[in-house]
Design goal:
about 180 residues, 2 domains, 2 helices, about 35% strand, binds zinc ion, YceD
Length: about 180
């Protein structure tokens, strides 16, 4: 929650706010997330407009996750930007429908939903340890990036080769 009292309500007044907050739970997606409680640096500009407070900001946080192909742990930083208008409480702003407008709660702005949306949108659907991660060896499970040229002496028994080909449905080969 961010207090906007010091900003005042005169349209045009602006304030720059920098603060660090602990990350809420479940900030991110299953395979890549900001660890709960880790610092999230917020760099915000608050701007009073007629209807409310316009919040424009940048959030910087550390991410933990694992590579979707080889399961190697990934640690990286992310920086996201966001902007949202928070309408003054008690104002009959919308036409009665809930059109997703964010409301100020008194003088307070709840940044968490905003932050959550911005972070989730910024994350890759399938995080990778490197852009062209080759994944794991289908025969022994070794991480191919560590040992790209390793080979297996015994090829698949030719008697089973036909069966293997049958089992490889399209779409299952890119694991
Ligand atoms: Zn990888
Ligand atoms: Zn192997």
């Amino acid at each position: 929650m961010l207090d906007t009292r010091e900003l005042g309500r005169r349209p045009g007044s602006q304030r720059q706010v920098e603060l660090t907050v602990p990350a809420p739970a479940d900030l991110g997606i299953e395979v890549l997330r900001v660890p709960e409680g880790s610092p999230v640096e917020l760099d915000l500009r608050l701007e009073a407009v007629m209807e409310g407070v316009l919040v424009t900001g940048t959030a910087t946080a550390a991410l933990d996750g694992e590579c979707a192909r080889c399961l190697e742990p990934i640690s990286e930083d992310t920086e996201v930007t966001f902007q949202e208008l928070f309408v003054y409480d008690g104002q009959d702003y919308s036409s009665g429908e809930d059109d997703g407008v964010s409301m100020l709660e008194g003088d307070l702005v709840d940044l968490e939903p905003l932050l959550r949306d911005a972070v989730v949108l910024a994350l890759p659907f399938q995080p990778l340890c490197m852009d062209d991660c080759p994944g794991l060896c289908v025969e022994c499970g070794a991480r191919l990036a560590d040992d790209p040229d390793h080979a297996h002496d015994e090829p698949i028994d030719p008697r089973w080769a036909g069966l293997t080909a049958l089992q490889q449905e399209p779409g299952e080969q890119d694991q």
